[in-house]
Design a protein that fits this description.
Tachylectin-2, Chain A; Glyco_hydro_43; 21 strands; binds beta-L-arabinofuranose; globular; single chain; mainly beta
Length: 327
């Protein structure tokens, strides 16, 4: 018998999954996760432990329905420019086509962002022959605004190589700002009409504190690390992300999808495992946080599982902070 989905429990247990990007397509929930592979290789700050090679797309007819694995939707052997590490993906829909956006290392070991398309939200997806020109780093998240514009947010520190692009070209030994210097923000670019190229940008997003000053690199509880997500609530843009080294999911808001954003608070306290990565989606009349932890492997960083839980707003638009192992 199929297992019905429950909050705070792994959506699937037959494979390891992470980095869930959830969307409502065709009236159902579709979840686009990474597919973690087991191995005995090194676990380090470069992210060598995350050796993913393909994507499996999940769906749920309803929030408490069984979670279906639709099988392999895209494998790196079918993407000409990829050498390894297909990390956190996202998806979008426009004019009868579904788009899968994914980061991976190119043949030179540099992270780039690619696109693949399908007529079916569960794939299989056909990749474009090359990565998006001008793309770099990891963790693409695509946001379709009410006015028809599409934005792609991306970037990740350390293994995600964002520090190496501060001059606009790849500098292999570049390090990030430190201490009191402004932290690096995620990148945003407007996508072209066909969603296959950058139309404007990319440009760096500024995240400010309550006094209007940029968050500093030393402010590891609040500064951007990786895993951006964008959603809109009550006419505000909510940029949420992981703080990486301090393991929080946090958010900042703005009236403009390109910012600057003002830091507002925490969404989720640390989970089991080093990484924390999420998406936020409205389904029917409720909002949900999709996230992952390493509980399915008793804490092995690269053997993760995707989960969801309800997300609630306060009357003033702030998000109620959640503790992952409490209801
Ligand atoms: O899954 C590989 C990487 O780990 C993702 O790209 C990051 O966001 C982190 O979850």
């Amino acid at each position: 018998m199929e297992k019905h989905s429950k909050p705070n429990e792994p959506l699937v247990t037959h494979i390891f999954t992470a980095d869930p990007s959830a969307h409502v397509f065709e009236g159902k929930l579709y979840i686009y996760p990474s597919h973690d592979l087991d191995h005995n290789g090194p676990d380090n700050d470069n992210g060598d432990q995350y050796k993913m090679e393909d994507y499996h797309i999940l769906s749920m007819d309803d929030i408490d329905a069984p979670c279906i694995d639709h099988g392999e939707a895209l494998h790196m052997k079918d993407v000409p420019w990829v050498s390894k590490q297909m990390w956190a993906p996202d998806a979008a829909y426009k004019n009868g086509t579904y788009y899968l956006f994914f980061p991976a290392r190119d043949k030179d070991g540099i992270f780039r962002i690619g696109v693949a398309t399908s007529k079916n939200p569960a794939g299989p997806f056909t990749p474009e022959p090359n990565y998006i020109p001008g793309s770099f780093s990891i963790d693409p998240a695509v946001f379709m605004d009410d006015d028809g514009k599409a934005y792609i947010y991306f970037g990740g520190l350390w293994g995600g190589q964002l520090e190496k692009w501060q001059t606009g070209t790849f500098v292999p030994d570049a390090t990030g700002p430190s201490g009191d210097e402004p932290a690096l923000g995620p990148m945003v670019a407007e996508l072209s009409d066909d969603l296959l190229t950058f139309q404007n940008g990319p440009q760096e997003i500024k995240i400010l504190d309550e006094n209007g000053n940029p968050l500093t690199a030393g402010d590891e509880d609040r500064r951007y690390f990786e895993g951006p997500w964008m959603h809109k609530y009550n006419d505000y843009y909510y940029l949420s992300y992981s703080t990486g080294s301090t393991h929080y999911l946090v958010y900042a808001i703005s009236k403009d999808p390109k910012g600057p954003f003002t830091y507002k608070g925490r969404i989720l306290e640390p989970v089991i495992g080093w990484t924390t990565h999420h998406s936020i989606v409205q389904f029917k009349d409720k909002w949900y946080l999709f996230y992952h932890d390493s509980s399915l492997s008793n804490g092995v960083n690269h053997k993760r599982c995707v989960k969801y839980r309800e997300l609630k707003y306060n009357a003033d638009g702030t998000i109620q902070t959640m503790k992952p192992y409490e209801d």
